[in-house]
């Protein structure tokens, strides 16, 4: 089990060791909501996970394969047993645990998590299966540079058990949504969505697997648009400035 006691990054045999979080929060750099940073410099991405991090893997792989002007500089989990930490560390990515159980108050956890994130000076923070509700102050800290993916066609079915609820409601199609995070749970300007038909005989596990496969397509694409400066938010709506489709059918 990974401890959560000290701060900093360690290197071992050319690989990043899994480290733990410090307490307290640093000041976040100024940022204009709804605007991407200039593309002249490499963007720094921090990914937050709670489990194995399949979307994290997809993002990292597409970034390397497609030569984005970006780098995944850190992966942070709220669970010491999160499998994605080892995956990241094996690839030389800073892998860190901020164990939510070590903080009795949400505000204290949010502050510790923000300090861990800010240590890497990210241009973008990506939630990839991060199963904690974040407070409004935390969300506002990263306003305009905090992305999430949710396994439903938002605004339908926010929260948990999305596929079960969709089947119970008789939905004929489901999907996934990439969106900018706002203080309201599973809401915010929508960057991209995938649409997946519900097939005869589907249960929530079959449906979840097909939706997840589309997540591995639309999330990397949305993040690439962000780091390339191709997203603009106007009146709560996200515009892809090249005119590319923001729906995967």
Notable features of this structure?
6 helices, Rossmann fold, globular, 249 residues, nine-stranded mixed sheet, 24% strand, alpha/beta
Give the termini separation.
41 Å
* Low-pLDDT regions: 1-15, 22-39
By oligomeric state, this entry counts as single chain
CATH architecture of the largest domain: 3-Layer(aba) Sandwich
Overall tally of structural domains: 2
Fraction of helical residues: 25-40%
Q: What's the helix-strand series?
A: EEEEHEHEHEHEHEEHEEE
Query: For the report, how would you describe the main beta sheet?
Result: 9 strands, mixed
- Determine the CATH superfamily of the largest domain: Formyl transferase, N-terminal domain
Q: Would you mind describing this structure in some detail?
A:
It is a single chain. The chain is α/β, with parallel strands linked by helices. It has two domains: 116 residues, Formyl transferase, N-terminal domain (Rossmann fold); 102 residues, 3-Layer(aba) Sandwich (Rossmann fold), CATH 3.40.50.170. It is 29% helix and 24% strand. It has six helices and 13 strands. The strands form three sheets. It has a nine-stranded mixed beta sheet with strand order 3-6-5-4-7-8-9-10-13, sandwiched between helices. Strands 1-2 form a two-stranded antiparallel ribbon. It has a two-stranded antiparallel ribbon with strand order 11-12. Helix 1 runs parallel beside helix 6. The longest helix is centred in the last third of the chain and has 24 residues. It is globular. The chain starts with 10 loop residues before the first strand and ends with a strand.
């Amino acid at each position: 089990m990974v401890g959560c006691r000290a701060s900093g990054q360690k290197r071992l045999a050319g690989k990043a060791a899994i480290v733990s979080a410090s307490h307290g929060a640093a000041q976040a750099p100024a940022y204009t909501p709804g605007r991407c940073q200039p593309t002249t410099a490499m963007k720094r991405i921090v990914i937050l996970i709670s489990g194995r991090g399949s979307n994290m893997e997809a993002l990292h792989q597409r970034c390397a394969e497609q030569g984005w002007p970006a780098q995944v500089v850190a992966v942070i989990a709220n669970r010491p047993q999160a499998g994605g930490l080892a995956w990241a560390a094996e690839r030389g990515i800073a892998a860190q645990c901020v164990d939510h159980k070590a903080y009795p108050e949400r505000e204290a956890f949010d502050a510790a998590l923000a300090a861990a994130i800010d240590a890497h000076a990210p241009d973008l923070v990506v939630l990839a299966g991060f199963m904690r509700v974040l407070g409004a102050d935390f969300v506002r800290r990263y306003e305009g540079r905090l992305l999430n993916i949710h396994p439903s066609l938002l605004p339908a079915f926010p929260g948990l058990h999305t596929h079960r609820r969709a089947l119970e409601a008789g939905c004929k199609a489901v999907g996934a949504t990439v969106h900018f995070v706002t203080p309201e749970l599973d809401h915010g300007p929508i960057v991209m969505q995938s649409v997946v038909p519900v097939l005869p005989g589907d249960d929530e596990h079959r449906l979840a697997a097909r939706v997840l496969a589309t997540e591995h397509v639309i999330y990397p694409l949305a993040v690439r648009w962000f780091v390339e400066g191709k997203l603009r938010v106007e009146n709560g709506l996200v515009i892809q400035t090249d005119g590319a489709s923001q729906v995967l059918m």
